[in-house]
Amino acid sequence: MNYDIVVVGGGPAGLAAAIESRKNGAESILVIERDRELGGILQQCIHNGFGLVVFKEELTGPEYAERFIDELSRENIDYKLDTMVLEINKDKQILAMNTVDGLVNIQAKAIVLSMGCRERTRGSIAIPGYRPAGVFNAGTAQRYLNMEGYMVGKRVVILGSGDIGLIMARRMTLEGAKVLVVAELMPFSGGLTRNIVQCLDDYDIPLKLSHAVTDIKGRDRVEGVVIQKIDENFKPIPGTEIEYECDTLLLSVGLIPENELSKGAGIEMDSKTSGPVVFESMETSIEGIFACGNVVHVHDIVDFVTEESRHAGKAAAKFVLEVKADNNKIIETEALSGIGYIVPQKVRINSVDDKLSLFMRVRSVYHDAKLSVKADGKEIYSVKKMHLAPGEMERIDIKKELIGENVGKLTVEVI
């Protein structure tokens, strides 16, 4: 099989990239999805709040996905479901497998990686206790409840205040469960402010910051959970134990970009984001292989995934059509004080159209602060922020003429 562009992953990132590639001249496009339907994680996100940026209206996750699935069909873009990509190499050859075609080799002129992310598990955070039934990742519980129709528990403790954990606190309450508490290891929430208000405050669910689960009671099924306050070194403080009688523990303890295929292809990775190092076009260190969405860095809002992925799809089409900018000087980006990471990590200034979008997360909570962008140490742009938090991704758009062509490094810091 030969295609101009192969998109690995049929979630919101992959769908947007594939459609944008077609609109920009790519002829043969294939989307490969390992699940039984297109749409990715959106299919289990039945709450509203999607689409406010892209469509200027409020949609549920399945409604948002349906817009792109319908457009994919109108554009006559090929896709394969229940298909697992086993290997990608630097020559843009793809080895995939399903129950209909068996083992297939696919040659692409360009590849877009959009595999999304996965949840951290209990094993990665080393909670003591037995391994009873009733311990779920929040996203797994969400799929059981919203897509499979299974109720995972009646009395629930949630560890982690990421957006999935917050949303599941509300969802479990609406289904009749009693959510006893949401415990968060950090001294600040990892989720969007709107989700704290709408999912916890509106339902009188307590949020305990700087608390960790230190024991799980029960051998066959969860019977109780012990949480404990922790100090600045993340050590439990004796005497602060609180035991909750419950049958379920949901874990919302972080997301990890799904990058086994990226690493296997030999793509340069960023240890801060756990995703590929990308240029302004979302091209990786291997020419003709692009990446977008949560496989690059974890996003809060799917609308931003869509915008980023459209950018990647357009760039992939340009690559296939051999539209290249000349004399492309590379500018490095660097996260300084208060900034956890910046995407893209590299910028080819001549490939920037009229503005450069920088995405980043801060390391802590700040009030009345300023984000300062400097080119070789000279400030070229700044923006005041009343509130900055690690749970909310920041985006800065800089006009191309402000950067100039002879800059070697762009830095961002919190002042």
Tell me about this structure.
The chain is α/β, with parallel strands linked by helices and 415 residues long. It has 3 domains: 1-119 and 254-324, FAD/NAD(P)-binding domain; 121-253, 3-Layer(bba) Sandwich (FAD/NAD(P)-binding domain); 327-415, Immunoglobulin-like. The protein is built from 9 helices and 29 strands. It has helices spanning 12-23, 61-74, 122-125, 138-148, 163-174, 193-200, 260-264, 302-320, 400-403, and strands spanning 2-8, 29-32, 48-50, 59-60, 78-80, 84-88, 93-98, 102-113, 117-119, 135-137, 155-159, 178-184, 207-209, 211-217, 224-229, 242-245, 248-251, 255-257, 269-270, 275-276, 289-291, 330-335, 339-343, 346-348, 355-362, 366-375, 378-388, 394-399, 409-414. The strands form 8 sheets. Strands 1, 2, 5, 6, 7, 8 and 21 form a 7-stranded mixed β-sheet that branches. Strands 10-17-11-12-13 form a 5-stranded parallel β-sheet. A 5-stranded mixed β-sheet has the order 24-22-29-26-27, with no helix packed on it. Helix 1 runs parallel beside helix 8 and helix 5 packs parallel to helix 6 (193-200). It is globular.
Q: Low-confidence parts lasting 5 or more residues at pLDDT below 50?
A: none
Indicate the structural class. alpha/beta
| Rg estimate, integer Å | 22 Å
Q: Separation of termini?
A: 53 Å
CATH architecture of the largest domain: 3-Layer(bba) Sandwich
Keywords for this structure?
3 domains; Immunoglobulin-like; globular; 415 residues; 5-stranded parallel beta sheet; 29 strands; FAD/NAD(P)-binding domain; alpha/beta; 7-stranded mixed beta sheet
